[in-house]
Amino acid sequence: MHFNSRFWLKFSLINLLIVALIGLLMRYKIGFEFPFFDQKHLQHSHSHFAFTGWISHTIMVLMIGFLEFRIKNLDARFLKKYNLILIANLICAYGMLVFFIIQGYGLLSIIFSTASIVVACIFAYFYYQDLKAIPKEYLSKNWFKAALFFNVISSFGTFVLAYMMVTKNIHQDEYLASIFYYLHFQYNGWFFFACMGLLFSFLNLKTNENPFYKNVFKLFFISCIPAYFLSTLWWDLPLWIYCFTVLAAFVQVYTWFRFLFIIVKSKRDFLHQFQPFLRYLLLFVAFALSLKFLLQLVSTIPAISQLAFGFRPIVIAYLHLVLLAIFSLFLLFYIFAKALILLQKNIKIGVITFSIGVLINEIILAVQGISSFSYTVIPFVNVLLFGAAIVLVSGIGITVFFSLKAEKK
After folding, report:
1. Which residues, other chains included, contact 218 with Cβ-Cβ below 8 Å and sequence gap of 6+?
2. Are the CB atoms for 60 and 18 separated by under 8 Å?
3. What is the pLDDT of residue 328?
4. 143 vs 181: CA distance, rounded Å
5. pTM higher than 0.85, yes or no?
6. How confident is the model at residue 311, as a pLDDT?
7. Virtual CA dihedral for 155, 104, 179, 164, nearest 10 degrees?
8. What is the pLDDT of residue 408?
9. Which of 187, 83, 192, 182 has the alpha carbon at shortest distance from 144?
10. Under DSSP, is residue 14 helix (H, G, I), strand (E, B) or coil?
């Protein structure tokens, strides 16, 4: 018996299309009149479904696939428990998708949101147990352990937010700190460490090739927790916490660029066996991640951090950089580079269109964010962002259509 990654990854692509469609609807409401649906409710649905239905679901599927090819004599119980977890996770994701639109932070949306955390914890428990069967020489093992850890602790921020919403006892600073806590340990913890584990597995990196590979994990893990305070620099932090935060930003920049230099030097021949399109996609992801770490370092300058967190377009641009340009494109790269879904000509066109949409969207958001420093209004910016959203939807729509069509054949 085999774990059917391709079946579950079809849901991943469909869910990414749904995320893009809700984003398109939100952009339409901003640029034009559309009285139906509450914008805040759409935003909650969009973000929760993107995290649970697209990125987390896809990471779970790919991590399960990692286990399948490295554990001998898998039995039916292995497949059954993970299939049930994925079903439960999708039910929670679709529940949040619907009920956040209908009621915002209401009873049912909070129930599905809480249930998704329970599912994540169950997955973490079983996956951690199964990782024990993986030999230590697989460097991905520690990355996946850390990813599970950060996914579990990120839930603390969600519980605080839910409590505030239910009790209507909202304090602005605590509210923002809880949101950024959840976001940080999701995308800098769960998403980042899981994707790095997948990357280490994909490149087949071994300690005997370069001893720094082990240190990459240690340095990122140690710096991840103090790096949370990069999101709270608008608070009046004690000097010692601020110093640790700056140090964490420096450590991550140093670690990433040294690791990147080693990979470019040692794995160039390996990467050349893949299509140029896939290599450029990975290069785009590497550039975006490099930019992210540099922006984090620059944000430690107090004056700049006050400006950045004071303007919503800056925050939106940064989140889209992380979630679209880095994690979404990396996951698409991994799926097609590993041939988990066969890359045909029309699918390739769809992924290229989607990546162009990501680039256009990020450029517009960056220009809007930078111009907000001087309170300069960019003409027709909402129309331009709506156009970028159309490109994103078109790209992933083409990808989904031809992926499902190819599967039927």
Report:
1. none
2. no
3. 97
4. 20
5. yes
6. 67
7. -80
8. 61
9. 192
10. helix
